[in-house]
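[recover] target loaded
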């Protein structure tokens, strides 16, 4: 193995290391199962929202693909799970979860070619249009989806035939937290691989990325498909934990809330969606208890303040958190730095020597 290969291998090893802050985050998340038993219902919703936000962060934070209709895949996975459970096609929740993710990923792949066209404004309109089409289809065929009344009669069997869902959300929260952690591990592996680096490159400069041989369109299709699968799993979790599915899962408001979560938590380091989901969900719950009729007003006011003051000032802590979680993530190996410094000095010396010879 050459020295360059060793440096590259060491670089990816450093990228894959877990920082103490990351470990502490997941230990606290696991401990919440026993420490906060009375909050399991809202924590279940938070875990689902965090997974949904993670799916959007994969395309927005790492590939630069903005979407206002990400609820399309969330709702598709939710309805898919509800229908297969209602009609007894798939009774095992874990298997239904996997199938919902694959179905949403297939929808994401089929629609990804529309997203490749045009600029960010075009992508916003295309993704929003896809979500609106699915919303109207679900509303139109109410004999299948239940329409405005929602999909009722969904029978969710025990997880792996052993763990039944309860009214207090104990089983649901543990189930959602495990799924969130496993899919987070997969996402972490993806964004720290050479594939993930190529996504960052095409986000920064697609033309330059294509010039150095990165298949830009193929990368965008791949990450869009993966993100759609993640969103489908999140939607499936919502149906399984509530045994109900309504048109709300395809609404524009759900996509807008998702963007607000990422505005609060930040993008491009995976934990932004998780932290933003916790802050948003508990802030929403607190405001709803404080002023039940006007909680949406206060949420909107927070968003306006973030826009007016500037996201960097309001959520500047996410940058510090980013560096704490991923220390020296893109730092150049010391040996390479030294070689470049030596080469630069030699270059300066040669120029100086040539100048003196010329005189």
């Amino acid at each position: 193995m050459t020295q360059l290969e060793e440096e590259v291998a060491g670089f990816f090893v450093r990228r894959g290391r877990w920082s103490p802050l990351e470990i502490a985050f997941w230990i606290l998340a696991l401990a919440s199962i026993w420490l906060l038993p009375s909050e399991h219902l809202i924590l279940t919703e938070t875990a689902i929202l965090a997974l949904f936000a993670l799916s959007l962060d994969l395309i927005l934070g790492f590939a630069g693909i903005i979407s206002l209709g990400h609820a399309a895949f969330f709702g598709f996975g939710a309805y898919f799970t509800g229908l297969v459970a209602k009609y007894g096609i798939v009774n095992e929740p874990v298997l239904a979860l996997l199938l919902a993710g694959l179905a949403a990923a297939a929808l994401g792949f089929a629609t990804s070619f529309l997203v490749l066209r045009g600029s960010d404004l075009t992508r916003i309109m295309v993704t929003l249009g896809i979500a609106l089409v699915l919303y109207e289809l679900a509303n139109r065929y109410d004999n299948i989806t239940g329409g405005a009344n929602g999909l009722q009669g969904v029978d969710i069997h025990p997880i792996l035939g052993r763990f039944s869902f309860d009214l207090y959300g104990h089983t649901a929260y543990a189930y959602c937290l495990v799924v969130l952690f496993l899919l987070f591990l997969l996402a972490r592996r993806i964004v720290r691989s050479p594939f993930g680096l190529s996504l960052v490159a095409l986000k920064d400069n697609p033309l330059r990325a294509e010039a150095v041989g990165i298949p830009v369109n193929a990368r965008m299709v791949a990450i869009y498909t993966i993100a759609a699968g993640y969103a489908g799993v999140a939607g499936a979790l919502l149906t399984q934990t509530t045994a109900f599915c309504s048109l709300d899962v395809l609404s524009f408001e759900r996509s807008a809330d998702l963007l607000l979560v990422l505005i609060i938590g930040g993008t491009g380091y995976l934990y932004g969606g998780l932290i933003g989901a916790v802050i948003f969900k508990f802030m929403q719950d607190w405001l709803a208890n404080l002023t039940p009729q006007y909680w949406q007003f206060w949420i909107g006011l927070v968003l306006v303040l973030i826009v007016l003051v500037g996201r960097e000032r309001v959520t500047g802590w996410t940058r510090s958190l980013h560096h704490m979680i991923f220390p020296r993530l893109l730092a150049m190996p010391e040996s390479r730095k030294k070689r470049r410094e030596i080469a630069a000095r030699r270059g300066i010396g040669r120029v100086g020597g040539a100048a003196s010879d010329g005189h």
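[recover] notes: Confidence is low (pLDDT under 50) at residues 328-359.
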